[in-house]
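Recap from last week: sequence in, structure out.
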Amino acid sequence: MTAAKYIFVTGGVVSGLGKGVTVASIGRSLKARGVRVATMKLDPYLNVDPGTMSPYQHGEVFVTEDGAETDLDLGHYERFVDENLTKLSNVTSGQIYNFVINQERRGDYLGGTIQVIPHVTNEIKRRIGLVARTSHADVVLIEIGGTVGDIEGLPFLEAIRQMRKDVGRENTLYVHVTWLPYIAASKELKTKPTQHSVRELRGIGLQPDVVVLRSDHAVEEDVLAKVALFCDVEQNAVIPLVTSDSIYDVPLILEEAGLGDWLTGHLKLTATQDPQSGLANWKQFAGSTAKPTAHWPEWVNILRLEDAYLSVEKSLMHAKHSSRWDEIGG
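Predicted structure tokens:
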């Protein structure tokens, strides 16, 4: 069995850009090529798991098939990639520090000084490797929660920096998702926050290979060229991702931008399936969710609390666009 390759996805400028949907969409694109994919979320907060956190503050708890209470982004991963996840796919700083401190208390380190580097970063890397080994995936997609510049996220960023040295440059790839703010007065998109975000990454030893530019407005070619120049990224690896009416359009948008082919080429992955045929069913599904449909039946009443009931809404939406909707009372 060949060793897994790793794609690490970070976020910059502001939070809430949709890194989770981006990871899920990349996973969908690779799977459409016949590539075996696993997904993982690294969260910097000190809670041991999201089950102790208020859904009003952090969003819903997504429960995996083995009963683990995890971050809501794992729901996106499962719905897009169609692979069941386990407790191994969600790691928090709280879990890492709890594990390392308990080892120290047992005397496992033989009285040695315990430090963030190497002990915490080694444990992060061990858990990433565990997902690769248990999933037998060709590619492991890892989302690093939070925003570049957050103090609590530094151990995770240092760990993924070390991963390139550990497994080889040819087996690692860094994707950075940023925001392009629009200045209404001058009617232009500004790249400076993206430049600063990439500079922050480079300051800790991470050079992104791909920059995904989130925006509410169309991104012109000159903006892509400017980001490529100032962020030292190939221009065809600067990917515009304009806000869509449906998150299910995102894999198709990234595919049209050429990201799937770019990733496959740079990681030297062997595609066993034509992506167009691999995405045929997805296109049909995405198209159906975009069409105007009848209102929810009277028996459906979802409390609108942003992400607190995300899986409930998504499950009903998926059912609504299935052939069995009428059978369940629609």
